[in-house]
Design goal:
Layout: H1 7-18, H2 20-25, E1 27-33, E2 36-41, H3 56-75, E3 81-88, E4 98-106, E5 110-118, E6 124-133
Antiparallel strand pairs: 1-2, 2-4, 3-6, 4-5, 5-6
Length: about 140
């Protein structure tokens, strides 16, 4: 498992920090494992529908970014999204949602990432699957 001083951890943190959109969403790296990345998004009222329930757009963005970062570890940098599917299972509430991205397929040109989003109480709020280029760009 990569630690906070590993090249993989440094790569993902630099990608997250260099994107104004990611910084604006308050997304940070929480954990990494082999073919797994865990990101957290900080609660802000402007990311919610009513101050308590996250809007679907930021949740979808969290899923896409987490999936991308799972691929980026293997590819060596950020990669373009080819397609993204999101299923919302329940309202996502609480101080933060947490996205766990797993990389079931990393091919020469195409990679697939599966992402689960849980709220602070551990409830599964959304799931997503992203297809990404395996080529940095």
């Amino acid at each position: 498992m990569p630690d906070r001083n590993s090249p993989s951890w440094t790569l993902i943190e630099s990608i997250l920090a260099e994107s104004e959109a990611i910084v604006a969403l308050g997304i940070t790296l929480e954990e990494m494992g082999e073919d797994t990345v865990v990101l957290r998004m900080t609660m802000r009222p402007d990311l919610t529908r009513d101050g308590t329930i996250y809007h679907g757009g930021p949740v979808a963005s969290l899923i896409d970014i987490a999936g991308d970062m799972a691929v980026a570890v293997r590819a060596g940098g950020g990669v373009p999204t080819i397609s993204l599917r999101v299923d919302y299972l329940r309202p996502c509430t609480g101080p933060w949602p947490r996205a766990t991205a797993r990389l079931p397929r990393h091919g020469r040109t195409i990679s697939v990432s599966d992402v689960d989003v849980h709220d602070a109480q551990g409830r599964l709020c959304a799931v997503g699957r992203g297809t990404y280029s395996s080529i940095v760009g």
